[in-house]
Design a protein that fits this description.
Blueprint: E1 3-8, E2 11-12, E3 25-38, E4 51-55, E5 70-77, H1 79-89, E6 94-105, E7 120-126, H2 151-154, E8 161-167, E9 173-179, H3 183-191, E10 194-201, E11 207-211, E12 223-230, E13 233-240, E14 243-251, E15 256-262, E16 273-279, E17 284-290, E18 302-308
Antiparallel strand pairs: 1-2, 1-18, 3-5, 3-12, 4-11, 5-10, 6-9, 6-12, 7-8, 7-10, 13-14, 14-17, 15-16, 15-18
């Protein structure tokens, strides 16, 4: 979230709701639906399987047999997370500061359908949540629910966003993959509905199998961990010569705060100019100095936005 404050040289107008405390919080979102799809069985559904898989075209199973490309779709519902952060910080009075996908790898699956191999894969946020998990499994696939033939229609390069590239370990154990925070992904997290991820191979030799929401041990299922910070609030704006000093509260240690500026509050955020940055070494009150911000045309109305990451 961003917080515009108009300033007209020595005349300051500010009206912000401040949250109390600056402690970060983390919420673990449970998986609501997941399924892998196979290029070599493009009409079949495996949504009821106990495992998920991301595999490249060159990966093979334990017997050296290549079972083709696998992709995985996962959804999480963030309604509980939004309610939790709202209760801690006030309704919509918080910002997403981090996210990670946590899964449990099966390095040597006992099902011959799954390929093996260490390699890179990409995690994407996808805008389209309109897929059905289905009930098929490796031993009894079905034709209802998501299949590989649906992949092209579910992906939208103009709307979807990469959350980064990761690598599996090739052995049993829990893995956590940090995710980047493109605006569309953050907006979807904050909306309190379904949030969809798509995992696909980068390396042809990757054969990454991990447990699904149908796996018997709940702690081994996929989880989306999201951290949030209370929204920073501007408490005052002052001039120091030609510099503008923004005093703020609810700073979090280690967080980076950026100041953007524009003479037109209606401009899209991408067109606002970055004018200052401050990385905090402690929690609580802090300030950001915008150098020479008051040295331009005295009649110009300037707007500032304070934001994290």
């Amino acid at each position: 979230m961003n917080y515009p404050t108009p300033i007209k040289l020595q005349t300051v107008f500010a009206a912000l709701t401040l949250a109390s405390g600056a402690t970060a919080a983390t919420f673990t979102n449970s998986v609501s639906a997941d399924a892998f799809v196979r290029a070599d069985a493009a009409t079949l559904n495996y949504g009821g399987a106990g495992g998920l898989s991301v595999s490249g075209s060159a990966a093979t199973n334990a017997s050296g047999i290549a079972n083709g490309v696998f992709d995985t779709f996962i959804r999480f519902n963030t309604a509980g997370m939004v309610a939790h952060f709202d209760s801690l910080f006030g309704p919509a009075n918080w910002e997403v500061s981090g996210a990670a996908l946590r899964v449990t790898e099966q390095g040597a699956s006992n099902n011959a359908l799954f390929n093996r191999g260490v390699g890179a894969f990409e995690i994407l946020w996808i805008a389209n949540d309109g897929w059905m998990e289905g009930t098929g499994n490796p031993n009894a696939p079905t034709t209802t629910g998501i299949t590989y033939n649906d992949v092209a229609s579910l992906l939208n390069p103009g709307a979807d966003a990469s959350l980064g590239t990761s690598t599996n370990a090739g052995m049993d154990g829990s893995l956590s993959f940090p995710l980047t925070l493109p605006p569309a992904f953050v907006d979807d997290l904050r909306a309190g509905g379904e949030v969809g991820l798509y995992l696909t191979a980068v390396d042809a030799g990757v054969g990454f199998t991990f447990t699904s929401r149908n796996f018997g041990t709940a702690s081994a299922r996929p989880y989306l961990e999201v951290s949030a910070l209370p929204r920073p609030g501007i408490t005052s704006i002052a001039l120091s010569g030609a510099d503008v000093v923004l005093a703020a509260t609810n700073g979090a240690a280690g967080a980076t705060y950026h100041v953007l500026s524009s003479t037109n509050v209606a401009l899209p955020l991408a067109q606002w100019l970055p004018v200052a940055t401050n990385v905090l070494d402690s929690e609580g009150a802090f300030s950001v100095t915008v150098t020479n911000a008051a040295s331009a045309d005295a009649s110009a109305l300037k707007f500032f936005i304070l934001r994290t990451h």
